[in-house]
């Protein structure tokens, strides 16, 4: 057989190998999809899922059912998706705790977010905010640092749990500010609000959307956002990084669409395209932006998640964060 014939045969075989994948993309999806949220209804991750799901369903031509699998800081839901059949019918609306941080702090983790989940596309991000009870009289990051530094270990800060982005943000603030605060983990925002307003804790780190109504009512004092840039939803609140002492503080909560690893590339590509189109819709973007989310549909999702995990790893290591 001549070299030309061999080359023609190879090209023909290669084209034949592509046919199943092309057929799979053309037919997908043929039934309803499940979009898993690892938290209870009403939280920030659930809000994003329910903003995206109806329009994603319309574009895919199949129902997208949001399923709340709450527990263990979002990891129960993520574990379910990681173990699901990689066919594009079980997806995760993921955030940092269950996708990027869990495997860094838990020796008993049943999955690895980088290895067992495929990042389909990023949706958006929301800053966290450091707040204080008004009785402290604090009004900015410089005053906060001086106040906390005067009495190391006396004051406490609340978050929604060990190993959450809120916890990592608090530890980063402590390190950069040279202050010693006692971490008090909670199960969620409602009890954090109650105890901060009641004076049981001195400071707290919240997702911006959870704290903003209380800040605007004067029940909490915003010290600063944990991202480098101010939020379009609350431009009056400065970023901690605007104060030189806290220039390295840059961490928030992000939201993305994930599938089980080994989901066929054509299926992932279809989901990527449709998700981008959904996020360009004014009604979807407007709903998310009004809650404090900055849209990030054009990020390279796999690279972004890898970079974030390395950032989390550095914080976990210096803060020595670990869970059973």
Second CATH tier, the architecture of the largest domain: 3-Layer(aba) Sandwich
Strand content: 15-25%
Could you please say which CATH topology of the largest domain applies here?
D-Maltodextrin-Binding Protein, domain 2
Q: What is the share of helical residues?
A: 40-55%
Give the averaged pLDDT, no decimals: 92
Give, in order, the helices and strands. Answer: HEHEHEHHEHEHEHEHEEHHEH
Low-confidence stretches: none
Structural class: alpha/beta
The CATH homologous superfamily of the largest domain is called: Bordetella uptake gene, domain 1
The structural domain count equals 2
Compile the SSE list and pairings:
Blueprint: H1 3-27, E1 33-37, H2 44-60, E2 64-68, H3 75-82, E3 90-94, H4 96-105, H5 113-116, E4 117-132, H6 141-150, E5 156-159, H7 165-177, E6 182-185, H8 189-197, E7 203-207, H9 208-216, E8 221-225, E9 252-260, H10 265-279, H11 282-290, E10 294-295, H12 301-319
Parallel strand pairs: 1-2, 1-3, 5-6, 5-7
Antiparallel strand pairs: 3-9, 4-7, 4-8, 4-9, 4-10
Helix pairs in contact: 1-10, 2-10, 4-12, 7-12
């Amino acid at each position: 057989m001549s070299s030309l014939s061999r080359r023609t045969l190879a090209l023909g075989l290669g084209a034949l190998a592509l046919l199943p994948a092309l057929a799979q993309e053309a037919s997908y999806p043929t039934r309803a999809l499940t979009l898993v949220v690892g938290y209870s209804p009403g939280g920030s991750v659930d809000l994003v899922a329910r903003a995206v799901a109806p329009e994603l369903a319309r574009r895919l031509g199949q129902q997208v059912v949001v399923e709340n699998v709450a527990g263990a800081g979002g990891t129960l839901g993520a574990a379910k998706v990681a173990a699901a059949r990689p066919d594009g019918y079980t997806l995760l609306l993921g955030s940092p705790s269950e996708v990027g941080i869990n495997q860094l702090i838990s020796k008993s983790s049943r999955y690895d977010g980088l290895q067992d989940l495929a990042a389909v596309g990023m949706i958006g991000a929301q800053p966290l905010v450091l707040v204080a009870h008004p009785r402290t009289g604090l009004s900015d990051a410089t005053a906060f640092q001086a106040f906390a530094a005067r009495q190391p270990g006396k004051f406490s800060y609340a978050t929604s749990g060990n190993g959450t982005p809120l916890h990592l943000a608090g530890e980063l603030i402590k390190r950069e500010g040279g202050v010693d605060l006692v971490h008090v983990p909670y199960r969620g925002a409602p009890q954090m609000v109650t105890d901060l307003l009641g004076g049981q804790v001195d400071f707290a780190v919240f997702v911006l959307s959870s704290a903003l109504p209380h800040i605007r009512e004067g029940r909490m004092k915003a010290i600063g956002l944990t991202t480098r840039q101010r939020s379009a939803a609350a431009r009056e609140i400065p970023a901690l990084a605007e104060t030189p002492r806290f220039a390295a503080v840059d961490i928030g909560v992000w939201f993305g669409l994930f599938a089980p690893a080994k989901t066929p590339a054509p299926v992932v590509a279809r989901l990527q395209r449709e998700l981008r189109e959904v996020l360009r819709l004014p009604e979807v973007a407007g709903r998310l932006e009004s809650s404090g989310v900055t849209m990030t549909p054009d990020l390279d999702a796999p690279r972004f998640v890898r970079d974030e995990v390395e950032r989390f790893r550095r914080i976990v290591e210096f803060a020595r964060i670990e869970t059973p």
